[in-house]
């Protein structure tokens, strides 16, 4: 039914999909507990389709942050996608516009990493189908896990106060990503600024922390470079 390269992309993504399930469940549960209706929570997942950005947006919505702060925060967190796009775009330059739009929507860390490695090592691969297999599998599992989390969240009593799950997930992501000095400095500076700015108006402490973390990490990386 599907080309061999599509199935190869799905197989390559399988090991990463297991880690998406609990992440997606937390995103769905957190969205409902932030006050979103099930339809709004599912719509957010389909439109945004970005794990860390979704969780950050949900956390800010739960704190009654302004829409502008929510959007800016999500954009800052997802700035890396611009670099991914610039890197992978040459492999898709022969595609029609509608397929470029589909590929841009499906772009994630996992889909990019698997595809860019495959494209560099195997010139005989159908790039579009392989990418659709890998990135499409990530999309499908994320949406299913989020939807499951949404309906699971509607049955969890408010007194359980599971809001701690969102910062816990971010801490898990942080620990796995701090693998060198620039990232360590970015985590320490960004986290410190965010904590200091916890009472800043419009929840700007989070944006300030993100910008300070990125800036300090880049400076250290250039200095070590």
From TrEMBL:
Coarse class of the primary localization is membrane
Q: What topology does the record note for this protein and the membrane?
A: Multi-pass membrane protein
Keywords, A to Z, come to: Cell membrane, Membrane, Transmembrane, Transmembrane helix, Transport
Residue intervals passing through the bilayer: 12-34, 41-62, 68-92, 128-153, 160-178, 198-220
One Gene Ontology BP term is: L-valine transmembrane transport
Give the Pfam families listed for this entry: AzlC
List where in the cell it is found: Cell membrane
Q: Which residues form a coiled coil?
A: none
According to the UniProt record, one GO cellular component term is:
plasma membrane
Q: Which family does this protein fall into? A: Belongs to the AzlC family.
Name the record gives this protein: 4-azaleucine resistance transporter AzlC
- Native species: Haloplanus aerogenes
State the organism's lineage: Archaea, Methanobacteriati, Methanobacteriota, Stenosarchaea group, Halobacteria
């Amino acid at each position: 039914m599907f080309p061999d390269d599509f199935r190869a992309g799905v197989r390559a993504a399988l090991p990463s999909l297991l880690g998406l399930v609990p992440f997606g469940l937390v995103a769905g549960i957190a969205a409902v507990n932030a006050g979103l209706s099930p339809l709004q929570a599912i719509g957010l997942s389909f439109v945004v389709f970005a794990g860390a950005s979704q969780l950050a947006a949900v956390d800010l919505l739960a704190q009654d942050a302004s829409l502008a702060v929510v959007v800016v925060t999500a954009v800052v967190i997802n700035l890396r996608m611009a670099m991914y796009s610039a890197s992978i775009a040459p492999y898709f330059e022969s595609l029609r516009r509608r397929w470029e739009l589909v590929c841009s929507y499906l772009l994630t860390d996992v889909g990019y990493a698997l595809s860019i490695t495959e494209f560099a090592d195997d010139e005989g691969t159908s790039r579009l189908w392989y990418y659709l297999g890998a990135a499409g599998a990530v999309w499908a599992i994320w949406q299913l896990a989020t939807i499951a989390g949404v309906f699971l969240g509607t049955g969890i009593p408010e007194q359980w106060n599971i809001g701690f799950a969102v910062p816990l997930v971010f801490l898990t992501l942080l620990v796995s990503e701090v693998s060198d000095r620039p990232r360590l400095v970015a985590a320490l500076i960004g986290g410190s600024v965010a904590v200091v700015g916890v009472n800043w108006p419009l929840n700007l402490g989070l944006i300030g922390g993100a910008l300070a973390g990125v800036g300090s990490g880049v400076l250290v990386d250039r200095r070590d470079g």
